[in-house]
Amino acid sequence: MSLAFLLLVAGHETTANMISLGVLAILRDPGRLRPAMADPDRRPAAVEELLRYFSIADLGTGRVALSDGLVAGTTVRAGEGVLISLLAANHDPAVFPAPGDIDPDRGSQRHVAFGYGPHQCVGQSLARTELEIVYETLLRRVPGLRLAVPEEKVPVKDDAMVYGLYELPVKW
Ligand code: HEM
Known about the structure:
It is built from five helices and six strands. It is mainly alpha-helical. Bound molecules: protoporphyrin IX containing FE.
């Protein structure tokens, strides 16, 4: 039961939210993101960049230290719990310069939007494939797609476990 629930929620809510957020990002910056999504050589990197930028599954990444270690000057002792912000890691300017900029050619493969280690997301290959197919197909089949409301009126899920949009009104 628990595994089925996890697969349904982890597998649906995440990808669905990445689709709407990614489309919003593309409609906000069509000059850079549309050509990147249309190009099969650039598309995978553009999808990685959207995953990094939004880091939608930021909550709940907890670990227990198995041995003493030093993290950014702080000692973590064996047995201590650690809560990790994937969003903060993915917006670390030491790793991703100008992290608030969505640069489809950044080459952001080192991001941790799918977590890290043995328990990193089991569905990440499926998620990447789904997103590449959805963005490319949507933009190709609905070339006139655009926002139907001002950007600031798009309701965001600030209050949910997984970040996303409640709705994305569009017209074409
Ligand atoms: C954009 C889409 C997705 C994002 C951003 C995402 C993100 C994550 C993150 C951050 C974790 C925790 C990793 C960790 O603790 O290190 C996770 C775990 C997990 N994800 Fe995803 N996920 C996505 C899509 C999917 C899909 C499509 C599936 C299944 C079809 C899935 C199934 C799971 C499962 C079962 C786990 C638990 C793995 C474990 O604890 O060993 N996820 N995901």
